[in-house]
Design brief:
heterodimer, A: Rossmann fold, 8 helices, 15% strand, B: Non-ribosomal Peptide Synthetase Peptidyl Carrier Protein, Chain A, 4 helices, 54% helix, 0% strand
């Protein structure tokens, strides 16, 4: 489905980003795997022949620009961007420092914004491209103790919808997935009763796997989703019902 | 091809206008063809032709042909005086 596509995936060193990189490669894409953990990225690179490591902090504006310069020089185009990198803060509303909120916004929203901005400039040349953002069921539904995280992810939903309208005439589609409870390092702190409570609230009654989200992301990147834009697709086992 | 001609071609192609219309004082939003969408196409074309990656501030400031030359000069793109 993604033969010869050039795709950049942030947060590729673990979780959904990692699974998405593997799935994209499996479907024939060349993947730029981006993240801060260069060791983990190098290990992933060894598994994916058609890949290149971009180790940088996504909140570093200059480093992001350098990463895109590298893509421009090496590949001359970009077909897909997956804004996967993210952080999740668990803290009550009254216990959330504004600096914590800022950190959530910088990583989950501002960095995704800058990546989309630069990706668009490469995609505009070919009048074609697909951007997939990682929103969250928390951003769509709200969650006790996650107001900062929810704020950043809800903002990303707004960005997704606005960009789909603004970039549609350039042939660029913008969508998002909103995962529910997925078994990754990010959700590993949820054990025992708290995990069970979330899981049993979903229609399928189980946690999702990163690969199950990756499949939907790859579909949105592909031409099979050529008439889909501005959508936030819940991949949550029915949690949001 | 000289940089001046490359610039004119980039404007002409991106905005869908005759090359003769690309004068130094042609300004953003003063003709229907140079709207915000066309501006994005123009930026992509300029970056492609001159092999540069523009700063966002420069993209915002690039409000005329004359200003485009001034900004591109910062990226070591030379134009005849």
């Amino acid at each position: 489905m993604l033969n010869d596509k050039i795709i950049l995936i942030t947060g590729a060193s673990s979780g959904i980003g990692y699974a998405t990189a593997l799935e994209c490669a499996k479907q024939g894409a060349f993947v730029y795997i981006a993240g801060r953990n260069s060791e983990a990225l190098q290990e992933l690179h060894l598994q994916i022949e058609k890949s290149s490591v971009l180790a940088y902090d996504i909140t570093d504006e200059v480093a992001v620009k350098q990463a895109f310069s590298q893509i421009m020089q090496n590949s001359g185009k970009l077909d897909g961007l997956v804004n996967c990198a993210g952080v999740m803060l668990d803290a009550g509303f009254a216990m959330t420092r504004l600096s914590d909120l800022q950190h959530q916004l910088n990583t989950n929203t501002v960095a995704a914004y800058q990546h989309a901005q630069l990706a668009t400039r490469l995609m505009t040349k070919q009048r074609c491209g697909s951007i997939v953002n990682l929103c969250s069921a928390v951003g769509e539904q709200g969650s006790v103790g996650q107001s900062a995280y929810a704020t950043s992810k809800a903002a990303l939903s707004g960005l997704t919808k606005s960009l789909s309208k603004e970039l549609g005439s350039l042939g660029i589609r913008v969508n998002a997935v909103a995962p529910g409870f997925i078994d990754t390092a990010m959700t590993s702190s949820y054990q025992g009763e708290s995990r069970q409570q979330i899981v049993t609230n979903s229609a399928l009654g189980r946690a999702g796997q990163a690969q199950e989200v990756a499949h939907v992301i790859c579909f949105l990147l592909s031409q099979q989703a050529s008439f889909i834009s501005g959508q936030i697709i819940a991949v949550d086992g029915g949690l949001s019902l | 091809m000289k940089n001046e001609q490359i610039l004119i071609n980039a404007f002409s192609t991106s905005l869908g206008i005759e090359a003769a219309m690309v004068t130094q004082d042609l300004t953003y939003n003063t003709i229907p063809q140079w709207d915000s969408t066309a501006h994005m196409i123009l930026i992509a074309e300029l970056e492609d032709q001159f092999k540069v990656m523009l700063d966002t501030d420069d993209i915002i400031d690039m409000g005329s042909v004359a200003k485009a030359k001034e900004i591109l000069a910062k990226y070591d793109i030379e134009f005849d005086a």
